[in-house]
Design a protein that fits this description.
The protein is α+β, with helices and mostly antiparallel strands. About 35% of the residues lie in helices and about 25% in strands. The strands form 2 sheets. It has an 8-stranded mixed β-sheet with strand order 2-3-1-5-4-9-10-11. α2 (about 25-45) crosses α5.
Length: about 290
């Protein structure tokens, strides 16, 4: 980390530039300076600033239709059970469910002491191997899902995103089975155009509340991306633009057939008690990853 006084001076200089009326005349340069401003503020705060706070988790099903979407639902249930065991409060933010109870994607908050610090290393691709319940021939199938864990921001101003970088879309909030709840366009999706990061919220009663929640989630996603990129560059690692939800990128494998095993590919920690892990017993994996990172 750079000298604190030097960082504060750089932040003050960038703040002065951003206050200039002509700051946005060169849009590309302005965006670079805004990102540098946000990065310096994060560095000043320290990487573990949000560890003691709440977590926002999104699960995306990989390619593969019903099998992948069912796997996303299994992971969703796993984190709910983990929350119950850890006495964390659960709040659903947005879900896109199929007709079989699976999820194309689902976003939820886990609130409680150290929720983000415990779960932040769950981010990544999770792989399932099992006999497919959707295949008449009972063939073995491999499914993938991406878990994204970000800190829950209490205020959207914790990271500044210029309004002109945002694309806001509105839609009708939907309930189970896709039925419209209140016939009003209260659901909100916000896209950060330069990075293509997006956030969706439809759990609040009003469009304004959902917009605030989606913007807060988007801010946290951008924060985490900038922080991850910074840490990878410090370690001399290649910073990839996207994470494909497929073979070779998984952080953890859950095997139900032909044997039973859960193995984390970062720590090499493993257990044959798959049912316990899917039932929310994640502490041994969380501790192993924490010890590896420390």
């Amino acid at each position: 980390m750079q000298d604190k006084q030097k960082i504060e001076e750089q932040i003050a200089a960038l703040e002065a530039e951003m206050a200039d009326p002509g700051f946005w005349q060169n849009k590309d340069l302005a965006q670079e300076k805004v990102q540098e401003f946000n990065r310096l503020k994060q560095e000043l705060a320290g990487a573990g600033k949000y560890d003691k706070g709440d977590a926002v988790i999104t699960i995306f099903a990989g390619a593969g239709g019903d099998d992948a979407e069912d796997w996303a639902a299994m992971l969703f249930a796993m984190y709910q059970k983990y929350a119950e065991k850890q006495k964390l409060d659960f709040y659903l933010v947005h879900d896109n469910q199929n007709d079989h109870g699976g999820y194309r994607n689902v976003t939820f908050e886990l609130r409680g002491n150290n929720a983000y610090g415990k779960l932040k290393n769950e981010s990544g691709v999770h792989r399932l191997v099992r006999i497919s319940p959707f295949n008449a021939k009972s063939l073995r199938h491999t499914s993938f899902a991406l878990v994204e864990v970000i800190p829950r921001f209490a205020k959207t101003k914790e990271i500044e995103i210029p309004e002109e970088e945002l694309k806001v879309e509105f839609a009708r909030s939907s309930g189970p089975g896709g039925q419209n709840v209140n016939k009003r366009e209260t659901a909100v999706r916000i896209v950060h155009v330069p990075t293509n990061l997006s956030a969706h919220a439809d759990s609040e009663r009003s469009q304004a509340q959902n917009r605030d929640k989606a913007l807060a989630i988007l801010s946290a996603k951008l924060y985490k991306k900038l922080e991850d990129d910074r840490l990878k560059k410090e370690k001399g690692m290649y910073v990839s633009k996207t994470t494909e939800i497929e073979w070779g990128n998984q952080i953890r494998s859950y095997v139900l057939h032909p044997y039973k095993l859960v193995k984390d590919h970062r720590t090499e920690h493993e257990t044959s008690n798959v049912e316990a892990v899917l039932g929310g017993e994640l502490e041994e994996f969380i501790e192993a990853e924490k010890n590896l990172s420390s």
